[in-house]
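Example 3.2
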Amino acid sequence: MSTRDRILDHNLAVIHLHGIQGLRADRTILDLGITKGALYHHFAGKDELGLAILDERVAPQARAPWREMLADNGYVVDILRRYFDGIVTRSTSESIARGSVLGNLLAEMAPLDERYRDRLQAIVAEMTEAATTLLLRAREEGELRSDVDVDALGTWLVASIEGVQTVAKAHQSQEHLRRGFDGIMVCLEGLQR
């Protein structure tokens, strides 16, 4: 793995625990056993590093499950159930305590820095577009009622997924994670034909 990738991966974990404000050059140098010159060769400062993590780590992680769901030709409600079940099954007390890195960054940086806000908005817009496309397919295939506003539902779905993870983080509870996703499924199943 390249030094640049090691720096990005290490600091993604730091951001997940402590936010962008927790990035520290001296800790990165010490933790990775690299020189100050090696760090600054790749990143001019904390902002450049934080934005690179957002672009190269957080955004791809946020896109990946939506791409997988769009590629799945099964029933959309079943696809979403499997996605939620996977999040719950893979969750640990540590991952619940950390919450969603995207949700954490939305809360921390969107109000503070336009460069982060623009990138975060683009990630959420891409996720929402994928959710809307998935829900449109469900409506067209007769899984959802024909009167369902898939644009509004797609926006709600993405916000709800991030919200469930934030509430589970606040409660430090896998049960809240499971119940929150169950609640989303109740709503979606109520919109079925």
